[in-house]
Each structure stands twice: as structure tokens, then as C-alpha cells.
Design goal:
Number of helices: 14
Number of domains: 2
Radius of gyration: 25 Å
Number of strands: 20
Distance between the termini: 55 Å
């Protein structure tokens, strides 16, 4: 018989009987150290490797007047020290563990939300930890939104895993970026592989005892909110802070070593992605000179229940490149389309992308099937080259077109010949690293033919970062020039049908 955590058993009983059963009572937070309030500025030991923020190097024998290390993370102070100051040495412990054995130093400081700058270079990461419910005011929401859109990152930590803080953090994320969903990060998210390769973590014994997790070893629970393909808000359902300061206090959280590994990975991800918000595409505004759509090539972007809203500037940039090469009139508007709606048939070409798994309803599958059978073209791309999207897309296509399978296009395919000749492509650094540092490779594109024409075209590797000219250090895909050539050829094949 399959075993379930008590918290899930309680929910199942409640549904079956109509009687609400209480969740396990959360642990109490560590005692507040009133005699030793947290300092406003905390140094780490000698620093962390390869973070791209400025670092202060110093010889080990230099003991007098060491320079103040640059601030990597700012801990958020509120008016309630009972809430935010329970683990005064959490960041110090994390930075020291991250910097062990390296010759570079970073530090943290403490400010309120109203004191932080909207310029992320002045406070690269904001860290808010607590166990009580909270709510951001309008000014804080406005400033934090500007901060995130400028490239900053916020980490919310539920101290002792308290659900009240966690629920408040989820709401805060929705208030700051209401247009972006909060979602649980999948195992293929780069934050779990940015420094340490993390697939499972060890939870504290209290979590197993209380039935919150079925066993001490399980997948970590991090929620995130993305801006394009960069995760800008991290929300930890279970506590980091006791592990960061090696606190033996019972909590719903991670064991010390894994808490610190997760912390190191988050900071490694954040620093690697610090310039990810900058791209050629975001600096160019493409406007239809002629607002009429008649005679123009129009594209609809498929919405789904996964993370489909990714690089907003990428496809318009590809359309601009396609227009420049072929002279084909295009509409730069990327219209959002629901497969459950009849409006899907107004477009000859659909674009489907995402960075997580997803699924269609039976109605959506039936409409997509009819769209393809009527001569429409579906082009799909695994954003960032994520495996979870790849698996989901292949499963969905098997249900949309049963009996048909995605087949790799041979090197002599027309899609690799015109209008751009493509024999080989260059892999981006992240993809090359997975290929034993082999940069040059044959393009990997899959397709499904219906009635003698290519109706489904799919790339399991990222193309949109190249179209947009984004830095995208974790994107498993092709370099910009090759990504554009593949995209141009895909559009050309659809227009030339």
C-alpha cells in the first residue's frame, strides 16, 4: 500500500468525510537573542568562487585594516524583531561556508524594504526571513517591482517552515508581479545545478516526525516567479536559516549541509544571471508601420498551463530578421492564443514554447488536431532546452496526432537549405558543456508531416535566446546567428507551403 504524509492523509480524510482536520502544528522559532541583536553589516570569511560581482582580494598575511567586502545580500529588517531577527547569524554562516578555501570575500548588510535601492548593483539580493504573516504596502510593492525589473532578486524564507509566512510570501510575489504566476521549480531548473548538482535533499527529523514529508530524503521545495526566463523571486517553503547558521533548533527545514548547498546554488544562479535581463531584443521596439494585418504573416503564441510566457522580445526579433532576409510582410504582434478558443483558426502559424511541463485539455487537443489537419503549422521550442517541457510536448503530440511521431529531420531536408544554408550549428556554452565541450554540431530539429507537408516543427534546444540576443548562461541551445538562421528557415517553410 502506498504511504502518504500525515498532512496529505488529513486532506484526503477531510475531502472524504467533509470534516476538516488540522495540519500539524508548526515548530516554534528559535529564541530571540535580545542581548546580541544582529549587526547592520556582516562579513563573510574569504570568499566564494567565480561570482561575477566585484570582489576584494587580499593576501592571507594581511591582518590590519582589511577592506570592506562588497555586499552580496541584504537582509530585510522590519519593525518586528520577534519575527525577522530570530536567526541573526544565518547569512554569516552561509557566506562563510560558500567562501571556504577561496581568496575572495563578500558581505551582507541589513536594511528595511523602504531603505533598499531599486538599483540592484547596490543590493544585488534581498533576503526576507520570518515566521509571522505580513503584507507589503503600496510603496514597498512599487519599489520592489522596479527593483526586480531592473535585474534584482528577492529570496523569501519561511523560518521554521511556518505556513503563515509562506502564504504571505506567495501573496507578496503576486502583488509585486501580478502578471507572472508563482510556480514550483522543477528538477531541471538551473538553480538546482548551478554550483552543486542537487536532486534530493535531507530534511530535518522534525518534518518526518510530524508527517510533513514521507521520508528524510526528498526533492527540495522552491517556488519561483520568472521575468522572461530569469527567476527573480525565490520562495522557500521549508527553512534555510537554521541550517545556514548550524542551528540545532527543531524546524520544518533542511539539514545544515543541504540548506547551505541550496543557498550556494541560489547565489551562484543569481550572479550568473545578473545580466540576463539585458538583450538586444529588449533595446529594440518593433512597431507595425502599417497597422493593417491583411496580407501580413501573422503568428499566434499558444497559451498553456505551464510556464509559457518566456522571452517576450524574441519572436518579434525573429520576425524582423525574417522580413529583412525575405521581404515578407509580417505583423510584429505576437498574439496570445488559447487552443480552447475558435480564434486559433485565424492564424496560419502557431508558436508554442515554455520552460516547464504542461498539459492540454481534450478540447485543446481536438482543436489543435483540426488546426493541423486543415493546413496550419505548429512550431514548438523547448525554452532554455528544459527537459520537463520536452517530455510534456512529446506526450501531448502523441495524443494530438496518435499514430504519428516526431522524427528527426535529415541533413538534406529543405528546412536546412533555404533561404539560409545550414550544415552545422554552434552550441551555446551550457549545451557544449553537456557535449564534452564540443561546440560544433548538426542542428537537431524534429517534425511531423501531414498530407505531404511539414505541419509540426520542433526544436528540443533553445532558439529564442539567440533570436533575442540574450546572454542566457544556462540556455541549452544554439548561438545567436545559427538560431536566427534556423528560425528564418522555419518561417520560410511555412510561408512557402
Amino acid at each position: 500500500m502506498r504511504t502518504y504524509p500525515r498532512i496529505l492523509m488529513a486532506a484526503a480524510v477531510a475531502v472524504a468525510t467533509g470534516v476538516a482536520l488540522a495540519d500539524p502544528k508548526p515548530p516554534e522559532p528559535p529564541p530571540l537573542e535580545r542581548a546580541a541583536p544582529p549587526p547592520a553589516h556582516v562579513n563573510s570569511s574569504e570568499g566564494m568562487a567565480p561570482l561575477p560581482y566585484p570582489a576584494v582580494f587580499q593576501k592571507r598575511q594581511e591582518k590590519k585594516n582589511p577592506p570592506v567586502p562588497p555586499v552580496l545580500v541584504t537582509k530585510i529588517r522590519t519593525s518586528d524583531a520577534e519575527d525577522w531577527a530570530r536567526t541573526p547569524n544565518d547569512l554569516k554562516g552561509l557566506l562563510e561556508s560558500m567562501s571556504a578555501g577561496m581568496n575572495v570575500s563578500f558581505s551582507s548588510n541589513i536594511k528595511s524594504f523602504t531603505e533598499i535601492s531599486t538599483d540592484p548593483t547596490k543590493n544585488p539580493v534581498l533576503y526576507r526571513s520570518g515566521y509571522k504573516p505580513f503584507k507589503l504596502d503600496e510603496r514597498e510593492v512599487k519599489n520592489l517591482r522596479a527593483y526586480l525589473l531592473n535585474g534584482g532578486t528577492i529570496i523569501f524564507n519561511a523560518l521554521v517552515g511556518h505556513p503563515d509566512f509562506y502564504k504571505s510570501a506567495l501573496q507578496a510575489a503576486r502583488d509585486i508581479l501580478p502578471e507572472q504566476p508563482v510556480y514550483q521549480l522543477r528538477i531541471d531548473h538551473p538553480v538546482f545545478h548551478s554550483f552543486y548538482n542537487i536532486e534530493k535533499v535531507k530534511y530535518r527529523a522534525r518534518m518526518v516526525k510530524d508527517g510533513v514529508v514521507p521520508s528524510q530524503s526528498s526533492f527540495p521545495h522552491l517556488d519561483g516567479v520568472d521575468i522572461d526566463n530569469r527567476t527573480a523571486i525565490f520562495i522557500s517553503r521549508w527553512d534555510f536559516s537554521c541550517g545556514w547558521e548550524s542551528n540545532k533548533h527543531e524546524s520544518w527545514g533542511y539539514e545544515n549541509e543541504d540548506a547551505r548547498k541550496l543557498g550556494a546554488n541560489i547565489f551562484s544562479y543569481v550572479t550568473a544571471m545578473r545580466d540576463a535581463g539585458r538583450s538586444v531584443g529588449k533595446s529594440v521596439e518593433l512597431i507595425n508601420a502599417d497597422r493593417k494585418t491583411a496580407g501580413k504573416f501573422r503568428v499566434g503564441q499558444v497559451m498553456h498551463n505551464g510556464m509559457w510566457r518566456t522571452r517576450s522580445a524574441a519572436f518579434p526579433m525573429l520576425l524582423n530578421s525574417f522580413h529583412t532576409v525575405t521581404g515578407t510582410p509580417v505583423s510584429f504582434e505576437l498574439n496570445q492564443v488559447s487552443l480552447a478558443d475558435a480564434s486559433v483558426y485565424a492564424y496560419p502559424f502557431l508558436y508554442l514554447t515554455g520552460t516547464t511541463d504542461f498539459s492540454f485539455s481534450e478540447t485543446e487537443r481536438a482543436n489543435l488536431r483540426r488546426f493541423l489537419q486543415n493546413g496550419g503549422v505548429l512550431f514548438a521550442e523547448a525554452g532554455e532546452g528544459r527537459a520537463s517541457f520536452d517530455t510534456a510536448f512529446r506526450q501531448e503530440m502523441a495524443q494530438v496526432l496518435p499514430g504519428r511521431s516526431l522524427s528527426p529531420l535529415p541533413p538534406g531536408s529543405a528546412l536546412f537549405r533555404e533561404p539560409m544554408g545550414i550544415a552545422t550549428v554552434k552550441a551555446r556554452p551550457a549545451l557544449a558543456a553537456k557535449r564534452s565541450n564540443q561546440v560544433e554540431m548538426a542542428p537537431e530539429i524534429y517534425g511531423i508531416e501531414l498530407n505531404g507537408t511539414m505541419s509540426v516543427i520542433y526544436s528540443p534546444y533553445d532558439l529564442s535566446a539567440g533570436w533575442e540576443g540574450a546572454l542566457a548562461p544556462y540556455a541549452l541551445g544554439y548561438e545567436s546567428a545559427d538560431a536566427k538562421n534556423i528560425g528564418i528557415n522555419i518561417l520560410f517553410s511555412a510561408v512557402a507551403r
